[in-house]
Write a structure and sequence with these properties.
Length: 97
């Protein structure tokens, strides 16, 4: 399966997420990660390697992505939710654009 086609709004949100004035909390970061991975499908979840037993951060990220993947969310929907989340984080934390 090829990576999902990224919309211009999604690509802009990816760049914007790197310019927040403050770091989002862990739950927000996990949501960003899971929506990003589902939105890009690079690699698809089924082909993604599982993290090692002692990789707690990797496990948290993998589990967050698995939750989104198991919900049946399509890449296009994940991209839309990612854009919406980044916009709300820009309001919450400020943005250096």
């Amino acid at each position: 399966m090829a990576p999902a086609k990224q919309t211009p709004a999604f690509e802009k949100a990816i760049k914007d997420s790197r310019n927040l004035k403050a770091k989002p909390d862990n739950d927000e970061l996990l949501e960003l990660y899971s929506l990003f991975k589902q939105g890009t499908q690079d690699p698809p979840f089924a082909e993604a390697p599982k993290p090692g037993m002692f990789d707690l951060t990797g496990k948290a990220k993998y589990n967050a992505w698995q939750k989104v993947a198991d919900s049946g969310m399509k890449p296009e929907e994940a991209q839309q939710k990612y854009v919406k989340l980044v916009n709300s984080l820009k309001e919450k934390y400020g943005f250096e654009g």
